Amino acid sequence: MPRFMRGIVYLLAVFIPIHDISPTIQIHGLESPTFLRSYKPDGALMNHTPIALTIAGSDSGGGAGIQADLKAFSALGAYGCSVITALTAQNTQGVQGIFDTTPEFVRMQMDSVFSDLTVNAVKIGMLSQEPMIRAVAEGLDAHSVELLVVDPVMVATSGDKLLQDNAINTLKECLIPKATVITPNLPEAAVLLDTKVPESIEEMAAMVEPLLALGSRAVLIKGGHLGSEESVDLFHDGEKLHRLTSPRYPTENTHGTGCTLSSAITALLAQGVELTEAVKQAKDYIAQAIAHADELDIGSGHGPVHHFHALWKNKP
Known about the structure:
11 helices
């Protein structure tokens, strides 16, 4: 390529926004970039695969945690990598045991990933202990993470407790203020605010401003526990409140819904999708994953949602 042409290409790379030059594909009816583009100083084009990192616990049953996160990343077009904070002995019926990794090893995993991979967005899930939360917070600062989704995992779908009481304040002080968006369900929102679990949309809406006051840029409160005819979530982008609704599907297979939703948001953010649009698209994705959950036959308890509902062909 002639030198003057390389100069033109380089200027275009600097001044044209990424989302204006990224091709798009349709996945699950969602439009998302297939890759991000950047340019070397000599004008050569480089394609960058969107990379999403999950920092969370492992679910041996495969329905939630790291396993659900990586499935959602893949289903929505992002390359997934992981930092494992805990191992759980878990299946569709409950959690039988938890084995925490050490804060030092969690930080080592973070440093290993960030030193080699260009991570575009990070999702945080299960962090059961105070020292673990501090180690992750320090790692996020060290690697200048800008897009962060915090899913304050405290209780599993089965009712098993996943976060120690003394770690709640540390979560609020060290991690939530760094978040682009937090995604608590109603019981988690109640714990964060030290109040009762809301029983109506009005009580749920009253939690939005206090949750924003904890320091995150935006808040998504998941209203699945209300039991209304529709599944209603409330999303505040920092300026405006959005009411997001989807049909409520009659299924017991909802294991990992919270992990999947927050990971879907992360995957879309990693591809350059604007936050409000990413939340709306992720809401649509999890609704369909729940709608198709009964196509899977997994375990004898609360089975997982169908992360790959649009990719797997139904077997007769």
